[in-house]
Amino acid sequence: MHQGSRLRPTLAGLALLALTASARSEVPTPAASPASAPAERPSAEAAARPRASIEAGPMLQAMEKLAADVKGWGGTVGVAFADVGTGETVAARDGHVAFNPASNAKLVTAAAALRLLGPGHRFVTGLYGKLDGDRVPELVLRGQGDPSLDGGALWPMVRELVTAGVRRVGAIVVDQSYFDDRFVPPAFEEQPNEWAPFRAPVSAVALDENTVTLSVRAAEKGKDAQVRVDPIGFVDVVGTVRTTKKGDPEKITLELSPKGDRLVARVGGHLPENSRVVRVRRRLDDPRLVPGHALRAVLASAGIEVEGAVKLGGAKEKRLLASHRSRPLGELLALLGKDSDNFYAEMIFKAVGAEKKARPGTAEGAAEVITAYLKEIGAFEEGMVVKNGSGLFDANRITPLGTTALLRAAYRDVTMGPEFLAHLAVGGADGTLRGRFKNLGDRGIVRAKTGTLNAVASLSGYVLGPPGRAPLAFSIYVNGIPGKVGQARGGIDKVVEAAARALWKDR
């Protein structure tokens, strides 16, 4: 049923209109707890019974088709749809069963961070020390878990030092005490030899997402290509990349190894003349001193002499000389919802623990605080487990009905509802849903978070309704399907598309 031509003139403002009508007019009340006693839970037949106002037959058929396919692949599936306005379950299948949500765990991290820290929360990174004439004996670089900090943020702070008359620094001290020294998030140890950026460690002061990026630009044929490594100041490059004739294949090698408190990058390979700039990115193993070495390089570029070494410490220094503030949390969360960035998720997760449990922030403290939040809003069920903030590897467990309760509570919370909706990918338009729901893309009515592991496919979010109609919150988890994730994703999309058609029937 194609309805795009009829809906297109009004849908540019639909998301805002639907959200405003619900979130601005309703008192934020917790969803009814799905974790009630077994006697209070609806039967499977009652849970799957559609509301009279929604023709759910095609949706239930799509659910059954997905369930049959998944069973044939040897996996399991859980589904839940709930009316955001009433909290009523529209349809569910194994809604109380706890599944590995993959990156749908980021929904929990985002909602808890928005509620507990606030959409306007900013992460502060500062330079601290005693100004003695034109010299700072120990310049302390301290952070509060800013996931977005990059090398460019160091320059304005150094300019403040220059303006203040600083010409010499005795030593650079990196204060990582806002977080504990467990850099590897829970469950990340399952792939210890994985050097891809998605497995980057977390630290209170983290530069360039605790990764190293090698950028190679071709020169003239027969000459060495230009090689640059970021962050600056920490990595020594050994080796060369040769420029070959046009049309040759690209081959770039990068091997990282420690050398004292620095890192050596051994590069090699070849790049054809006039080719694009090639970038190779790898995670850091120990990120603690990297920001200090980068700061040293920036200070030198600004004409400030650094006399001593880069070291850890400085927690007692309170005199602020310069600072950098991140963008508001409400804006940073797009990296979780739209782009599914694991590093951002784990940094924000741990920051919640540091702010709301104890310092130094720990993953365990964050999990405790966030679990309490889920219980407070009625979104925690038996079998649910919060361990890390990204959903990477085999860590978390969430139920479909627990997820829809979370989605409903977040949407209806006037302090965070707009930001939570905005951080999600838009079907057919952006983020990890850019290539999905193309037939609904002009409506922009599917706002959701994807999740993918080797044997897991998940999707949870909202189907926005027409004006005057509350959205549907939905959650679909498929586990135990190695080699079938792509097929499962197609089945998941058909269920959501059927729900969208039911919600927009006669529109």
From TrEMBL:
Q: Where is the composition biased (Low complexity)?
A: 30-51
Q: What residue range is the signal peptide?
A: 1-23
GO MF annotation, one: serine-type D-Ala-D-Ala carboxypeptidase activity
Identify the EC number(s): 3.4.16.4
Organism placement in taxonomy: Bacteria, Pseudomonadati, Myxococcota, Polyangia, Polyangiales
**Species for this entry:** Polyangium mundeleinium
Annotated spans, Disordered? 27-51
User: What name does this protein carry?
Assistant: D-alanyl-D-alanine carboxypeptidase/D-alanyl-D-alanine-endopeptidase
Fetch the NCBIfam families from UniProt: PBP4 (TIGR00666)
Query: Domain of life of the organism in this record?
Result: Bacteria
